[in-house]
Each structure stands twice: as C-alpha cells, then as structure tokens.
Fold this protein.
Amino acid sequence: MTIPSIKSRLLNLLPEPVRNSSRLLTKRGRLVRKVKARKAARAASPHKYTDSPTVSLIIQSFNHRDNIETIVERLRLTTAQEVIVCEDGSVDGSEKAWRAQLTRPNDFVILSNDLHEIRTYNRAIKLAHGEFIGLLQDDDIPPTDPSWVDDVVKLFRKYPKMAILSGWNGWTFDLTDIDKSIGAPVGPAELFRDGRLDMMDPESKIPFQFVEAVGIGPMFFRRTDFQALGGFDEQLSRPGEPGIWLDYDISLRAWLSDRWVGVYQLKPFERNVGGQGTVMFGNAVRSANFTRNLERFKQNYSDHLPSVRAKVEGLNEQLVPRSSQ
C-alpha cells in the first residue's frame, strides 16, 4: 500500500468536521507551496517590473493561435519593455497560448468579448505606460531584425512634433475618382510591391518621410499625443465591427491639431499569416464599414487635404534623397 493511500485511509477514520478541515489544510498547503515557489522564481528572474517603459507593444488577438509563439519570440528580440495583448474572445485556444508565453512582469493580457480593434486598442493604451506605443496584429509576424523598434525611438526623438509613425504604409489621398482609387500608397507595404521610400532622415539614414496618413501596423504613437487626440474614434464602428479608416482618421486629426505623421521603412513583416481576420470572419461587415466610413472621411477631411498636403511637402524638404543602393 502506498503512503498516499495510507494517509487517505487514516483521514477517513477521523470525524467528518476534522476530516474536512484536514483536507482544506492539505489543499491550502499545496497552494502556499506553489505560490512561494513562483515568487522565488520571479525574484530570481532578470526581468524586473518598470513603471516607465520607453516602448509598449500592443497586439490585437483574434484566433491566430499558431502565430503566437513566433510573435512573442520576435518581440523579445527588441528593446520594448512592455507587451500588452488584447485577447478579444478567441475560440481557438489563443488565450491559453498567450498566458503561457507572457510571463514577464510588464506582460499583460486583457480579455474582452469580440469588441474589435477600436475599443480594445483604446482600452489597452489607457493601461500602457510606454512613452511610445506600438500597435500590432496577430496575423502579422515581426522581422528577426529587432532594429524596427529602436528606429521608432530615434525618429520620435528627432521630431518632437511627430505624433504618429507607421512601419507599414503611408497614404496620399485623391478622393475625386473614388470608384477607382482612394489615392496612392507611400512606403514599404508589401501589398504595393514597389513601395520603396524615396527619402531618409539625414542624420540616422533611416528611410523615412512625412505623409498625410498611415496604416496599422506596426503603427506607433507618442502616448501623450494619442491621449490628447482622444484616441481612436469609436463612432467609426459598432462593438464587434472592424474599424476601417480608424488609422487614416486619427492621422488627419493629428495634422489638423498641428502634429506630424510619418512612415519609415523596416525589414518587412510577414503579413496575413493564417488569414486576414476581418476578411475571414466577416467580410460583408468589413465592406459595409469601409463604405460608410469613407463617406464620413470625405465629409470631415476633403476640404482640409490641400493644406495637409502642403504641410507634408514642406516638411519633406528637410529630408534627403535616399541612396539607390
């Protein structure tokens, strides 16, 4: 007979009130030992909590569990000190996978129930403590080269009035022939094949230029500017709907409040890994949202685009042409 079975037989000989109390103490004792062991492991860890990270990275998560381990591995290569996941009601085990990966003191998982990106990003940025906030999506895999985060910090430091910076694409709008196109892309977005930036910052040599608007992601904000702008406009979607145009909208609001918006070039992310969520899980809603918000965008910003374009062109004059190499 094993020792545990002997203990169980002896315990059953005790009066019921004493037996129940003993079981509770045994269960509580196991819990105490687990907690103490976890606390000891955390105390020995080289990763310490900071109230003032330089960069916080926020990931919108919705049913791309197979990407999670790689995303975290790539984020750990960077100098970002804080990682926040908006786990928005996945049914594929993503929540458990994030919890297994995010074990550092400045790692957070926010649980919500299919509210979609506008509201979850707004909530997460209120939690974030980073001076600069980067927004990512769970179907995009970051590059192995970690300099994409350091370059963001350099550019924000160089241009104190810059509120928003994207590593995906910029945009020059032309709303006069909307049935064919909303304008022209500017930047390194893989979707646009030849989207090479023509200019660069003269000191850091980072490929970079100012643009009318930029897209997620990665999309970075100076946190104080994001707060001053009031965050993403929640009128652009109902809870559970995609927020198409949320990034262009806040970009134009930044320009109209005398803040600047730019795009820089980095080693490319792997895009739509496992499928683009808004297309896979609700393309009809996405299309309706796009059309509705486009009309709203035209009403709010069409008259302002010429002045914004003039600001962009003037600021780009301080940059230098990028080498052809």
